[in-house]
């Protein structure tokens, strides 16, 4: 789960745009960017398509933010900042899924029909996502920074909001909400042409782009698996809403994070909390 995002359809392969999840009934084909028309207020549509309808309204802003992120000017420091930010996001992925799986198993023992299939899906996905945070640290080393650039600074409040909301919903609502988070991250995997394009633009060696390259290859079918799961689960209206709220929050938080990363001249890392106390005589 490594979002990279990008630009509109016409430049997806060169800018690293998100690949929309395949439309229902058309495996392997990209969904149109137009919002599907929900007949009768959405009744009769599968849960996966109802979620796509909701996300379609939020995704243009995400695409615009990532297009700015990957513009050529000043790309090298932005790419290093991107690796640091993605490490803070991705290192939370497996712990989030582990906790959600524990909660799902507990709910299954109490008769929740979502518990067993949700726990089974998460168990498999945990294995697929293991050690991906380590890849990012290795990329940072190859990019001339090193692990300390990601591990020492206080993580951004945007990242805390992105992952922290999931912990709250897992603990205090229902772990099925995490599927909205996963849907957005898996649905915006790097495009196949992004890694070589970044290598040419930055002059960095290929090992600095392992995470981008591998997620472009590995995440291709992950969104399909998740959307198929949504259509199999006996979701109540409230549970489906929880998935949608989680997905929309994730899209909004990622958009804000990419906007921050895309600003020219990245801000120095935050290494402590609180406001600096001015020296005597300073105002």
Give an overview in words.
The protein is mainly α and 283 residues long. The chain has one domain: Heme oxygenase-like (Heme Oxygenase, Chain A). Helices cover 60% and strands 0% of the residues. It has 13 helices and no strands. It has helices spanning 12-15, 47-69, 75-90, 93-109, 115-129, 132-142, 148-151, 157-172, 178-187, 194-202, 210-218, 222-232, 237-262. Helix 3 (75-90) packs antiparallel against helix 6 (132-142), helix 4 (93-109) packs antiparallel against helix 5 (115-129) and helix 4 (93-109) runs parallel beside helix 8.
Query: What is the residue-averaged pLDDT?
Result: 82
State the helix count. Answer: 13
Radius of gyration: 19 Å
The CATH architecture classification is: Up-down Bundle
Return the domain count: 1
List the keywords.
283 residues, Heme Oxygenase, Chain A
SSE layout:
Blueprint: H1 12-15, H2 47-69, H3 75-90, H4 93-109, H5 115-129, H6 132-142, H7 148-151, H8 157-172, H9 178-187, H10 194-202, H11 210-218, H12 222-232, H13 237-262
Helix pairs in contact: 2-13, 3-6, 3-13, 4-5, 4-8, 8-13, 9-12, 9-13
Protein name: Iron-containing redox enzyme family protein
InterPro entries: Haem_Oase-like_multi-hlx
Region (Disordered): 1-46
How would you concisely characterize the structure shown here?
This protein has 283 residues and is mainly alpha-helical. The chain has helices at 12-15, 47-69, 75-90, 93-109, 115-129, 132-142, 148-151, 157-172, 178-187, 194-202, 210-218, 222-232, 237-262. The chain has a single domain (46-262), classed as Heme Oxygenase, Chain A.
